[in-house]
Amino acid sequence: FTVHACAWARASDRRTALGRQGMAADDRSRSEAARQRRQDQLQRWLGSETDRTGLEARGERSAGGGGGGGGGGGQRARVRFAQGAVFMAACSAGDRDEVSALLRQGADINHANIDGLTALHQACIDENAEMVQFLVENGSEVNRADNEGWTPLHAAASCGFLQIAKFLIEHGALVGVVNSEGELPLDVATDEAMEKLLKAEIKKQGVDVESARQEEERVMLQDAMAVLAGRSTLSPHPIMGATALHVAAAKGYTEVMKVLLQCHQDVDSRDTDGWTPLHAAAHWGQEEACTLLVENMCDMGAVNNVGQTPLDVADENLVDTLEELQKKQNLVSFCPCGLTLCLLGPLLRLSLGYITFSRSS
């Protein structure tokens, strides 16, 4: 589940960037959201070690050329950076001679930065067709995904770089790969020509679009069933602290959630920002996920690290629903035997729950 939780690793940034946008978007809003996430990611790249390395390297070339003492000084300055960062900077600068030299010295052509971006991703974003060709012909992985599941083809499609997209497809790029939001390259395409190219390739490759978009949910359900059967274990994301239940709730994967709850996942587990699964479901507009969590007696008054309840961060279209769910949860009565009478929905539900009596209302 750590793999699935990688989608959560940038959630703190996206919460502000995406505002109160729901996950069930149409093609237009899906594309707009994708471009916003990419912009956020590129903004983080500015000022990063890779970016600073590139600026310093370009400054050295313009200031001192390649002569004796100046060259030695340049070498001493460069060794402060990891080889991967130097390689990424050289690719970004379009310096093929430097890139070739670094590859001969053992640089990893598929080195990724903190966001999972490789040099090929960056060349696609920069519309550097020559560098794209050079990297692919020298072994760069055309289907390598970054931390948010974006492949180089996603990047080219979102930027509208048609010739680069064609080249990637001709060299094995898959049009049926989805990112962490369940988006195909087609979903993030920005113009008609790109859409036409990708639709034609989807037909040629025989890709079932809807099936591809649902692949992550199927994999998560399969993994959850393995946990329930005792063949696997659950662990939160090592950095963000998010659980599989956070991810499933944010994406509205209710069948996955049901299995996870059978595995006794803590319905009020918190990530490092103090967000519970209900915060996630509410924020990303997942009504069914919210209802399921409330039925399982989640703490609707839980506050995150900045004092916000799920209602405070909820999608505006879910506010009324959450208020109604809160009223119904308040009607729940607890028997001494632990039998919970959940007055939720049209029918009276009897459920045996793992109730935490110390929760605050």
Structural classification: mainly alpha
Output the strand order for the largest sheet. 1-2-3
Beta strands, count: 3
CATH superfamily of the domain at 215-352: Ankyrin repeat-containing domain
Q: In CATH terms, what is the fold-level topology of the domain at 215-352?
A: Serine Threonine Protein Phosphatase 5, Tetratricopeptide repeat
Overall radius of gyration: 24 Å
What are the secondary-structure elements, in order, as H or E?
HHHHHHHHHHHHHHHHHHHEEE
What is the general shape? elongated
Helix content: 40-55%
Mean pLDDT: 79
Strand content: under 5%
User: Which stretches of 5+ consecutive residues score pLDDT under 50?
Assistant: 1-28, 45-50, 60-80, 340-361
Total helix count?
A: 19
Subcellular location: Cytoplasm, Cytoskeleton
ANK repeats: 115-147, 148-180, 240-272, 273-305
InterPro entries: Ankyrin_rpt, Ankyrin_rpt-contain_sf, PP1_Regulatory_Subunit
Biased composition (Basic and acidic residues): 25-41, 49-61
Keywords:
single chain; 361 residues; mainly alpha; Serine Threonine Protein Phosphatase 5, Tetratricopeptide repeat; 3-stranded antiparallel sheet; 19 helices; 3 strands; elongated; disordered N terminus; disordered C terminus
Explain what the structure shows.
- The longest helix is centred in the first third of the chain and has 19 residues, at 27-45.
- This protein has helices spanning 2-5, 11-18, 27-45, 49-64, 68-78, 83-93, 96-104, 119-125, 129-137, 152-159, 162-170, 192-205, 209-213, 215-228, 244-251, 254-262, 277-283, 287-295, 319-330; strands at residues 333-334, 339-342, 349-352.
- Helix 2 (11-18) crosses helix 3 (27-45).
- Mean pLDDT is 79; it is low at 1-28, 45-50, 60-80 and 340-361.
- The protein has a domain at 215-352: Serine Threonine Protein Phosphatase 5, Tetratricopeptide repeat, CATH 1.25.40.
- With 361 residues, it is mainly α.
- The two termini are 31 Å apart.
- Strands 1-2-3 form a 3-stranded antiparallel β-sheet.
- Residues 25-41, 49-61 have a biased composition (Basic and acidic residues).
- It comes from Scleropages formosus (Asian bonytongue).
- PP1 comprises a catalytic subunit, PPP1CA, PPP1CB or PPP1CC, and one or several targeting or regulatory subunits. PPP1R12B mediates binding to myosin. Isoform 3 and isoform 4 bind PPP1R12A, but not isoform 1 of PPP1R12B itself. Binds IL16.
- Residues 17-75 are annotated as: Disordered.
